[in-house]
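As the next step, I wrote out a protein sequence along with its fold in token form, included below for the reader:
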Amino acid sequence: MPAPYRWMVFVDGENLTLQGQKLAREKGLSLVPGDYWEPDVFLWVPRYDAESPFHGYRVPAPNIGYPLDFRCTRSYYYTAVQGDEERLLDIRRRLKSLHFEPEVFKKIQGKSKGVDISLAKDVLCHAFRNNYDLAILVAGDRDYVPLVEEMKRLGRIVCLCFFEDPRGGLSEELRLSADSFAPMDKFILEGWKEYILKKAQKGAGV
């Protein structure tokens, strides 16, 4: 058996959230604001933290295709939000409760460039410091292609995770640039279906 890889997770949460919301609406899935979703700000799988985001969960998880350490070294979530400093602090606290290192930027309009820049900086800094062997990049934008190519030149393995559905906003060029691709459609959408069903049953006293 090959030795397990040290790994880190880097989530473009702003894009994941916007695309996930759109896909959920198209599939008739009503997300519930709370610990795991803040509209237009963050989205993750209910009752599932980032310390081991692709292991030990009943919902079908992405097949990374590489042997990984039991726990990831560190997990980052990048997003942007409109509002004052207290609003930003609230989002940081909520992402921290999901065991992410939260990188939250103030959003003026459109997609925040702070998300892309900070994610790229952290990915490269940790690579140069030899803090991981494999990076799980949760992103779909074509703009990350040069970053992925540089990570590979540094000898790191890059596993891309995003929605595979054609409506999910995944760049085919980004997908081809990574060492492997693991779709997140079932991982996120099926997890939410189960969560919503259980909340409905609880509310009905079932």
Summary: The chain has one domain: 7-203. The chain has a mean pLDDT of 87.
